Amino acid sequence: MTNPAVSFEVFPPKTVDAAFKLWDTAQALAPLAPRFFSVTYGAGGTTRDLTHDAAHVLRRTSGLPVSAHLTCVGASVADTMEQAEKFHAAGVTDIVALRGDPQNGEERFAAHPEGFKNSVELIEALALQDKFTIRVGAYPDCHPDAASQHANIQYLKRKFDAGAHEAITQFFFEPKSFLRFRDQCAAAGITKPIVPGILPITNWTSARNFATRCGTKIPAWMEEAYRAAERDGRTELLSTALCAELCSALVDEGVDALHFYTLNRPDLTRDVCRALGVTPQTALSNVA
Ligand code: FAD
Q1: Could you tell me if the CB of 41 is within 6 A of ligand 1?
Q2: Of 9, 121, 166, 174, which one is the catalytic site residue?
């Protein structure tokens, strides 16, 4: 088994305490020489300045590539492209380009009257600039808005055809979700990289709620395993074992890169990386 390349997603801090947590996360994970850190964009575009500042500081202090997430929600085309320009001016030339989720508890996504109508339009606009690396979201267990898995995959193909360079998937709990999706994407003619998104579970209740909202399938055996682990006070052990097992099953099937949703908690991610043979590279431990 060769060691996979890794990347780490963090979210921008809203308080001083949260800023320290992000800092600790970066310090703990930068020595693992990730391909990049990515910084999320709050639902409804609520963290646009914080995302910018966190991405900028992370890039400057870690010396590592940083990808800033950008959504179309609640903003005109001009505002969204101005935000992309600000990322670029801060040295952040890598963008995770997304449509985003519906605002204010609405059922369906509704575009801003002068905004991008979907992710494909945003990707096209970014690609036209010819100065960004563009990553996009992909959904192995199918996106709730997709009419079918076929439509889900065809839409991903449109995003690649529009200029995306790589896709990062929504998290999933079983290797077969990703492996089947990878095969279906290949059969649909998608040749660009699709990197599995991995969620180390720090809190099962939140992970399950989040999975329900975003369409990730929850295997019955996981419910039972967490129920027993909670009773015995061994959830951390279970999470580490399950996540390491998921990752090594993917690596055994030829997956060469993994993207971790760290939720600004580095310990579990670091333990799983260690189990996969991804260990600190002293030359790159330069977050200071
Ligand atoms: P898209 O792929 O554009 O659309 C999702 C699905 O809906 C498609 O598979 C397609 O089947 C269907 N669909 C959409 N539009 C059309 C259309 N016009 N015609 C036909 N079918 C259509 N959210 C945030 O708010 N901030 C973040 O920072 C953030 N980061 C994320 C990072 C990753 C790696 C992922 C996977 C998701 C992230 N999200 C984030 C969540 C994301 O915003 C939601 O999943 C959102 O509902 C879909 O965004 P998208 O660009 O991936 O969707």
Answers
A1: yes
A2: 9
